[in-house]
Structure formats: structure tokens, C-alpha cells
Amino acid sequence: MSSSDQLDTLYRQVIMDHYKNPRNKGELQDGDTLKINMNNPTCGDRIQLQMKVEDGKIAEAKFIGEGCSISLSSASMMTQAIKGLDVDEALQMSDIFSKMMLGEEVDDSKFDLGDIEALQGVSKFPARIKCATLAWKAMEQGLSDGEDEDDDD
User: Fold this and answer.
1) The domain that contains 97 carries what CATH number?
2) Which of 18, 74, 47 is nearest to 142 (CA)?
3) Residue 63 near residue 82 (C-beta atoms within 8 A)
4) pTM of the predicted model, to two decimals?
5) Across-strand partners of 61?
6) Helices in the chain by DSSP H: which ranges?
7) Which domain holds residue 14?
8) For residue 153, what pLDDT is reported?
9) Which Pfam families does this UniProt record tie to the protein (predicted)?
10) What distances in angstroms separate CA 104 from CA 47, 64, 70, 82, 135, one per listed residue?
11) Residue 132 three-state SS
12) How many domains does the chain contain in total?
């Protein structure tokens, strides 16, 4: 087995681990949370992302939903990665992830992407990119909407 095949196998195992044992799946009980619902009508993936932002940082993030292994494992990885980040950092990470999904070269030295790197192979399958980016788009929308609300105060 070539090293490329071994890496693909490892990445598939990481994705399946997050799918079968999702991190941060569930609902936040605190009423002061951002809730964003998104779906991918092409394949039926649905995600509700919930985030609690305190003092400009993402204090907590959880999700509920249903969909394919790519969609749900990406949500699991994303919620793990953004906890504790400043809002701007989370948005920067999302930008890096989006570029990675488009097959672009990215400078990911600012962040430890960890398990998220397992999703790199999705860029080879354009129909699956929307699955991988669904939770990330929900996060972007929620944080952007949350910033707008703060500007009105």
C-alpha cells in the first residue's frame, strides 16, 4: 500500500470516528446562544449550530442535525476547533477551510487544524464540498449576524 493510500485510509478513519462518535453533538441549554439552521437541499444534510459568544470569544459550540458522514464529521471537527477562539480567528479559520475545500494552497500555520485536515480529500469531489462546508457556513452566518446585533447596541 502506498503512503498516499495509507493517508487516505487514515483520513477516512478520522472522518468515520467523528461521524460515529461526534464531539459536541447536542443542544446548549443556556438561552443566550446564537442558533443557526442550515441545510443542503442537494443531499438533505441539515445542521443546527448553536454557539455561545462571550467577550468576543466562542465559549461553547454544539450542533444537532442529520446528514452524511462528511457533513456531520465536519460539524464535529469544527465545533471542537472553534471553542476558545476569538470571533475573528474563527472566521479566519473558516476562510482557510473554504480555500482548502476548493483545493487552494493555504497558510494554516496560524491554526492547528488537527482532524480537520482529514477533510482535504473532499476537494476532489465537488458534489461533496457543500456537505463539508455546511457547518462552517452556519458558523460564519451566526457570527456575522451576531456582530450586526452588537453594532445596533
Assistant:
1) 3.90.1010.10
2) 47
3) no
4) 0.91
5) 51
6) 3-20, 69-82, 87-101, 126-152
7) 3-152
8) 39
9) NifU_N (PF01592)
10) 26, 30, 19, 22, 20
11) helix
12) 1
The residue whose grid cell reads 487552494 is 104
Which residue in this structure is represented by grid cell 493510500? Answer: 5
b/e sequence 45-81, b meaning 16+ C-beta within 10 Å: bebbbbbbbeeeebebbbbbbebbebbbbbbbbbbbb
- For 41-81, write each residue's pLDDT tens digit: 888 999 999 999 999 999 999 999 999 999 999 999 999 99
pLDDT of 99 reads 95
Distance linking the first and last C-alpha atoms of the chain? 59
CA distance 55 to 25: 24
Residue 30, all three cell numbers: 443556556
Cα 105–143–58 angle (5° rounding)?
90
The C-alpha cell of 54 is what? 462571550
Confidence of residue 108 (pLDDT cuts 50, 70, 90): confident
Q: Is the pLDDT of residue 150 over 80?
A: no
